[in-house]
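Q: Structure for this?
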Amino acid sequence: MSTFLPHFPATFIVTGDPLIYGAEVSIVLATVGILFVLTYFKKWRWLWREWLTTVDHKKISVMYLIAALLMFFRGGVDAMLMRTQLIRPNMSFLQAEHYNQIFTTHGTIMILFMAMPFIFAMFNIAVPLQIGARDVAFPYLNAVSFWLFFFAALLFNLSFVVGGSPDAGWVSYPPLAGLEFDRGPGENFYLLSLQITGIGSIATGINFMATILKMRAPGMTLMRMPLFSWSVLASSILIIFAFPALTVALALLLIDRLAGAHFFTMFQGGNPMMYINLFWIWGHPEVYIVILPAFGIFSEVVSTFSGKRIFGYSSMVASLMTISVISYVLWVHHFFTMGAGPGVNSFFAVATMCVGIPTGVKVFNWLFTMYRGRIRLTVPMLWAIAFIPIFAIGGATGVMLAAAPADYQYHNSFFLIAHFHQVLIGGTVFGMLAGMYYWWPKMFGYMLNERLGRWAFWLFNSGFYVTFFPQYLLGLMGMTRRMYTYPANMGWNTLNFISTMGAYVMGIGFIVLVMDVVYSIRFGERDVTGDPWNGRTLEWSLPSPAPHYNFARIPTVTSRDAWWTSKQERSRSDAPRKLEPLQPIHMPKSSGRPFIMSAIFFIGGFGLVFNWYALGFLALLGVLVSMLLRSLEYDTDYYVPVEEIEQTEAALGRA
Amino acid sequence: MDKTTYRKRSRTRKLGITAGLSLLTTGCGERYLVFRPVGPVGQVEKDLIILSIILVLAVIIPVILLLWRIVWRYRDVPGNPAPYDPEWSESHVLEVIWWGIPIVIVGVLGAFTVRDTFLLTKPPERTAAPLTVQVTSLNWKWLFQYPDQKIATVNYCEIPTNRPIQFILSANGPMNSFWVPQLGGQEYAMPGMAMRLWLQADRSGVYYGHGANFTGRGFAHMAFNVIARPRAEFDGWVQQVRHSAPVLTRVGYQSLVQSSIVEPMTFSAYAPGIFESALLKEGGMYMKRDLTMLGRSHGH
Amino acid sequence: MSRPSTHASNTASGSLWMYIVGFVISIALTVGALWLVLARQFSTGTLLTVILLLAILQIGVQMFFFMHITDSPRPQFNLWILGLGMFFTFVVIAGSVWIMSFGAQGY
Amino acid sequence: MTIAHGEFPVHGRSINHDAPLEYSLEEGALRIFGFWLFLATDLVLFACLFATYVVLHGAAAGGPTEAQLFDVPGFTAETLILLTSSFTGGLGTYAMHNGSRRGLITWMIITVLLGLSFIGLEVKEFVTYATHGAPLQRSAFLSAFFTLVGTHGCHVSLGILWMLSIIYQLARRGITPITARKVFIVGLYWHFLDIVWVFIFTVVYLNGVMS
Ligand code: HEA
Ligand code: HEA
Ligand code: CUA
Ligand SMILES: [Cu+2]
């Protein structure tokens, strides 16, 4: 408190730029608007009962999806602003401070508050349904994860209007991010909000790992499990083992900043390189955490829309597992130029290249899944097909970066920027959009419009090439990243202009995507069958959206592509199926505690941002108390009676 | 490794390379600094880059062609005569092929990578005695000190051609990265620590350099030129600096350390121990290697 | 709720002796390591290796005698996870030490 | 109310009479597994703190070094106390499997008391250092020391609170599959902290007095 109190109002509310005033006003208006609508339509109770306290994985999935799309928009607006500033040399659209804040929030939001919730939305909607489970292993914990993420995102975004945004890059290296060079609260916002969302992510990793390993329907052995669930398993392994490194890196930097320790300072023996080391122990696995689920989605989509079994299932599983283990031992490739010695660099360079091998196997297996299939060019399939060339090229430039001596020339240049957007957008974003279009009917009960979807796809996809290919060339021309402006005489002008134009096209593509969602909410075609794509896995055996208990009877699985097989069997013999009698279903109760506890986290985090230790301490106490209360709570679940199940099933047309 | 090793390899690869490069060398090719190396270090890196491009293209192009062909041939249109085989999902021969090819590629690229990684930690040329330049990244400017010539410059750096330059990199401020694309790749300049980077220019010229690791508000302005000229001219320049330029005092240095953006500067002498004192700031890293690099024995 | 069956109690936690033996071994390992260090029996390098080995043995003792890792339900995924965790632990520590030992290669 | 699925439990309350009590509900088995996963993440968390300590432990920056600071009787006492508490905790589980609530509660109280005395010694150690020119802010070594050992200490403190809550629940509800599962899980946690301490003992203290 002491440091900020004297000039409190000035540091507390960010001032001084029309852009920011505009944003502040619009945020306030939006909040007031939402509050008004909720009150006017008397929706508060509904909101609380149906959403804020839910522990249903399907509803949590919807909330993750909404949050991810909102954050995509926020990160995307940041991108548009950056590209506008770089449209020509010596632009004065953004000042250095703002540019720095914007690329920092862009990178952080896109990775932690867009990609992560997006993959979690997919985990939540698909995994329990695919493996024939009633919910995830720990539904209550699942809600805790979501609300921690949610409040962390809130805290991070708050920095824009209160106190100032972080501006040391999404990697936030000290000493630049240490107290010596960064006194402001922005960096604290970064550290605390990432810490909070990190806890939520670890819990999600644990949850899905336990779900997949322990809650599969009878007969679904691991080698009969859909590939998306496998990819979630692989990703969860990485979450479980990588996120603690982020926790430690952030905590130590926070201790440096709040308590005056010397882990990463320039004095008293501190060693900033250790932060870089810890950050990437998490940071590298993180990029695979967000790509592996995308791989899983592509496997489902490609196989479904080729009307064919996935090619080389065992290889696909083996490559997922290999990637997840290898990717833990590559982190040094992010700092080859730190001079750790040729032995270290050689080892990590070769290990990095090795990741291309199992990834390549996946690419070829997708190709050969389509081979001799019948390819239906639906919107999810378009995203999947477009992914292959983009990702192959992006991966190939990754392999080029992995050649350590060559990386001395690419590092921190726009070549690197182009590489990682290519894999992050072409891989993760395309994957999540494919998954969104694919599972949308399962989540909401109606389809997204294909026509608008195609428009969005073509705009976004072609805009992508126009935006990022010039950036490879800019890198080779010596343009480094994180420059808010550049001189006119370097020959970078044309390529930057092209790149910005491409970004605008992507922006229009995104707007069309949003239009698709809005249009379909109103006019979207109902999905009455529950199986609009002629799917292969168990989620398509259920009505759309699935009832809250998912399966009235847990299915017994006898093969891979369980739903496909049972459809085939049914078409072969029309003997009436014998159904077991229904049993009451054991379900968890809703709880408001995840929401409240996460809100307390938020309050404590906010306090610590401004060094208000008392508030931080109170919040810690609050969290402990709510954990204690949970532990003392025994009435946490109930049984859905048979009659209710019968009624629900009948209403859904499944007697 | 001496000069001949550095050179010989580049010749053997040159043939295959020129084809792939023709696109970049025509017209505005001059702008592709990474592809216009003027010294052995940059050359080695460029050769490795070209090699890696060729190797990855060898599988990326087939992948894209295959994709194109498959999607076209097997698309779901009425009356498509292509075979449809919904159960076909295993082929050991095919799988061995695509586990195998990438392994070979990674093997080749890996071998060259390891060799060059070790190569670049050594001076490019043994015949000429190296020149040492101490580089300090300050907020937001570059300070160059010549311990043998006892002169200093800010935001530009003169070097003789055909002579290996030993850059000793450090920072008194946030961590930066020292990058002169046409001479060769970058290395971090970190506070409390000395890093060695070998570079060399074989041709006279003015080469663009820039900090590559973000250091805050003034980062975009951390450009500098490296001016390479023949030995005699370089010596002449040193003499001239010694006689004409002002001295960098300790006070002057302290004002350079403050955050600011400045024009190039030249100093005929500097207060001794500036570089070392920044490096060995209280509780700095005192690495054995740091001290040997500065020509001191270990211990403090 | 059912009464705990006697069958369960026997396989689950073994006999009292299991605990006592485990305790004695763990104390012995600790005191042994301490004694080795105080008595300076070996050179520093060897000593470090030996006490680290003793610590690793200690993991085994705790896991086997106290945490009963062997009687979790099959398939024992928890052992897989544990193994992976140990491997990653090793990677993180050994990797960091190697990386941060700048220039130990003496170039 | 048995929905038997053998190897493939679903979210249910089926009871497996052959398993130990804490595993007898499928939910119990699931939670115990989940807790193992949590321990795996905690393991890596400590791995990172150890890595930091190992890298920074020589950076005393002219301040007190390990060898000057560490006091053999002090840390040996802490170690023996914690090892013993791991043993008494185990005896608690043993009593539980024999169906003895009193035995269980008694052993748990003893464990808590041992844990408290461990924390007491540690706090005393920290306070001594901090008031004798070796606070966290003095050097990178001390930052790493306090953070690593302190994180373990926080874990132990949390474990004590947790055990108190479970003792209360046992007193109220007796030994049921649910309380048994809780006892078992807190036991795992406690033994795990013991393992971490053994490494702190070895890597921090023994290695410290060696140098
Ligand atoms: C989804 C995210 C994602 C993915 C999947 C990848 C995948 C890969 N990345 Fe990337 N990377 C990032 C996100 C990602 N990366 C980010 C965000 C950064 C920068 C962070 C920052 O600094 O801000 C980065 C930075 C980065 C660097 C650091 C560069 C530097 O800082 O100087 C390196 C270096 O080795 C690298 C390499 C690789 C490699 C080898 C792969 C491989 O996994 C790619 C494997 C795929 C293929 C190779 C294509 C398909 C394969 C075939 C068709 C078969 C055969 C091909 C061959 C054998 C060549 N990446
Ligand atoms: C998943 C991750 C992800 C995604 C999807 C993106 C998406 C995009 N990124 Fe991002 N980017 C990163 C992760 C990502 N980025 C990271 C990690 C960094 C590094 C940060 C750092 O250096 O620390 C980075 C850095 C980065 C830079 C480098 C800045 C610099 O170093 O100077 C650039 C520059 O071109 C850029 C551009 C873009 C563009 C054009 C998109 C486009 O795909 C965006 C598409 C647009 C939208 C989806 C929204 C459209 C919105 C509208 C149309 C509304 C318009 C309204 C107004 C303008 C008011 N990004
Ligand atoms: Cu950094 Cu030595
Ligand atoms: Cu990486």
